[in-house]
Structure formats: structure tokens, C-alpha cells
Amino acid sequence: MKKLFTLLAMTMMLAVASVSVKAQDSVASADTNKVEQVAATNDAAAPAAAEDEIQGNAAHQAIKQKFIEGGVGFMTSVILCLILGLAVAIERIIFLSLSSTNTKKLLVKVEAALNEGGVEAAKEVCRNTRGPVASIFYQGLDRADEGIEMVEKSVISYGGVQSGLLEKNLTWIALFIALGPMLGFLGTVIGMVAAFDAIKVAGDISPALVAGGISVSLITTMAGLIVAMILQVFYNYCVSKIDAIINDMEDASISLIDILYKYNKNK
Question: What is the pTM assigned to this prediction?
């Protein structure tokens, strides 16, 4: 009996050992397959990455070549218009984003502070809130003891001041939008003059000579139009943002006058 048990135990141990060896072999083969797949993937991705890099370099070289062909002086001036216009547009976008206020929440806070602590408490709420709406509220509350009519006049007057601050520097963006294509057209005209001068010197109207001169001169016009289109998008965004803020200012100002009227009536 003991020999039988010993024989069974040895058989089971051999079976387990063979299974573990097979499992290790399968894991090793799977790892090998994964390595081979990764290597194959890398081998396949390497030419694609190299091709993308080549295409990127080719595009960069093409843009550089067109920049040189269009004339470094005029192309630089057009690019400068783009850079300055984008700088002003980004500054306006940041300013307008900081000027946006949740007017409904502000009105609730001002009304609660006005009912609990009076005008000074409401002014403190406005003082601690950024944006043109809070500034207009503060000016209106500062004249609350002079009557509703003075509050309304103060709100309207200071609203005009805040509107001017919101629209500040937009004229510069409009200038660069107009100046970019103008510089491009000027470069085109000068290029056309140079092409006709070349025809005059050559004494012959060669299609290749005329086409080459016209093609080079039109590059500045294309660059100027692209600059104008890019800046026009930012300009329209700023204008729409300003219109939204001004509408909130007007609506909130009417609500503030109503709140002060109720407060004076119940006082």
C-alpha cells in the first residue's frame, strides 16, 4: 500500500512538473511573440515617422522658400502685422475673460447685503468683486442717498466709461487687419513693376519671365490676406464678447435700480 501511495505521489509530481514546464514554455513563446510584434511594429512605424519628418521638413522648406521669394522686407512687415495683432487680441481676450461676471449671483449677494447691512455692506460686496458690472454697482450704490434719479444717472455715465475700457485697443486690431493686405498689395504692385522692368530690359515678352514675376509678386498678397483672415476671427470674437458684457451691464443696472427702489421703499 505504501509503495502504491509513493508511486502515485511520484506520478503526480512528475505531472505537475511537466505542466509547469509547458506553462513556462508557453509564456516564453508568448513573450517572444510580443517582442517580435513590437519589433515589427517599430520597424513599420520607423519608416512612417521618418516619412512624416521628411514631409514636415519639406513643408517648412516650402514656406521658407515662398517667404524669400515674396521679398524679405514686405513679408517681414506682413508677419509683423500678424504678431502685433495677435498680441493685442490675446491681451483683449484675457481682459474680457477677467471682466466677465456672474451678474445673477452678484445681484443676489448685493440684495442680501443691502437688506442685512445696508448700503455700506452692499458696496463692500461690489468692492470685493472684479469686473465692470461690480464697478457700476459700486458707483450706483455710492449715490444711493441722493435718490434713484442720481443713481440712474451715475450708472449710465459710468457704464459708458466701462464700455470704453472694454473696447480699448480694438482699433489696433482693425488697423492690422487693414494693414496686412495693404502691405501685401504694395508688394505685389512693386513686384509687377519689377517684372515689367525686366521685360523692358529683355526687349521681349517672355511668358516664363512674366509668369515668374507675377507669381512671386502675388505671394505677398496671399500672405496679407491670410493675416487679415486670422486677425478678423479674433476681432469678431472680441466684439461679440464685448457686446455680451455690455448687455449684462445694462440688464444688471436696471435690476440694481429696482433693488434700490424696493430698499428705499421698505426702509
Answer: 0.69
